[in-house]
Amino acid sequence: MRATAAGTIVSVLLILAIVFGSRLLKDFDAALLPYAVATVFLAFGVAYRYTVWVSAPGARRLFEQGRRSLFSAENFRRAPVALPKMIATYLGFQKFLGARSHARWAAHQLIFWGCILAALITFPLTWGWFTFTSNTGSGPGYEMRIWGLEVIGFDALGFFGWGMFHGLDLAAVLVIPGASYFLWRRMKDRGAITGQRFAYDLVPLIALIVISVTGLLLTFSSIFLNGGGYEFLAILHMVSVVLTLIYIPFGKFFHIVQRPAAVGMQLFKYTARQDEQIFTCRRCALPIDTAPYVENLRGTMRDLKLDFDQWAEYCPRCKRVLRGTAYLTQVKKGYK
Fold first, then answer.
1. What is the pLDDT of residue 220?
2. Which entry of 31, 314, 329, 333 is 20 to 30 Å from 297 by CA?
């Protein structure tokens, strides 16, 4: 009930933002209505799923700790550049992926920045917030308006104008190689093949490629084919985009929404390291993680009624040794 209410409220707020942001639909393009409707469903799904997610004991604890760290005046005083650094390295450039594979990091960056660029262009246009008008009716001089206010004028035949009108094509050029790499990897890598699921792992990549390719084909049709096949490609592109937007909250793409919430937890761990609050293994004395993080993990395990939260105080190697010793002394002896 709580999740449904959250989804409904966010959807209504988005509808109101579309209506008033487009100046009571004066700047709203009716041809983009399916995209706008899909974003409303997207807003409902994201709010619904996010509310369900943070209601789980583990996520709720992490979320609360992260929220307190983000809005802590003490943290800002001690480490004023920590938050911008976390946003740049953890969200923007995702350096943690580079430790796993440079190729995966590069492919993920292509997808990430391509999708960011596409979203920054598509959503405001779909909602009627951005408009491009020409006093002559056919250019080349255009004005970009936001909420009806002129922001900048440009020549459509110039470099800036070309970039403005082909921003989605640039986004597609970024996304296609990145998504293709991950699709190829899931076809060839044994580790990826073993645990992958078609709907969860392959469908998102296929959707990104279909959206990008059909978008490029629309441009190709208008420039080189005099609009040949444009209507079919436009419908195919629209269907792929709409279905993907609706899919986002309930598939692998949901991690896009989850990831920003993790910045607070990274800040939580970072400030603890700055204070040298490092928790060491009870058995071998090697560092495990920050003391507040280990205590937070133990609290989550207690919330879940897992009566072995003390195991969080041991490093992975010592856990294996202790389990092996327990097996030899308590289980295997019964077979002698």
1. 92
2. 329
What is the rounded CA–CA span in Å between residue 272 and residue 82?
A: 12
Q: Which two tokens stand for residue 234?
A: 């436009």
Residues whose CB is less than 8 angstroms from the CB of residue 153 and which lie 6 or more positions away in sequence, other chains included: 141, 142, 143, 144
Distance between CA 195 and CA 209 in Å, rounded?
22
CA distance 284 to 304: 28
- The structure tokens listed for 73 are 């005046």
Closest-CA residue to 43 (of 73, 16, 22): 16
Burial group, residue 66, by CB count within 10 angstroms (0-12, 13-18, 19+): buried
Q: How far is CA 150 from the centre of its chain?
A: 31
**pLDDT tens digits along 199-208:** 788 889 999 9
Q: How many CA atoms lie within 13 A of 36 on its CB side?
A: 22
Distance CA 145, CA 2 (A): 38
Residue among 117, 116, 130, 144 at smallest CA distance from 21: 130
Other C-beta atoms closer than 10 Å to the C-beta of 86 total: 21
Which residues are CB-contacts of 101 (< 8 A; sequence separation ≥ 6)? none
Residue 151 φ/ψ, nearest 5 degrees: -105, -45
Judge whether 238 and 34 are in contact, CB under 8 Å.
Answer: yes
pLDDT in tens, 27-61: 898 888 999 999 999 999 999 998 998 888 777 87
Cβ atoms of 18 and 55 closer than 8 Å: no
SS3 131: strand
Distance between first and last Cα of the chain: 56
Contact 151, 144 (CB under 8 A): yes
Q: Using CA atoms, how far apart are residues 82 and 88, in angstroms rounded to an integer?
A: 10
* Helix (H/G/I), strand (E/B), else coil: 279: strand
How many residues comprise the chain? 336
Compute the distance between CA of residue 128 and CA of residue 148 in angstroms, rounded to an integer: 9
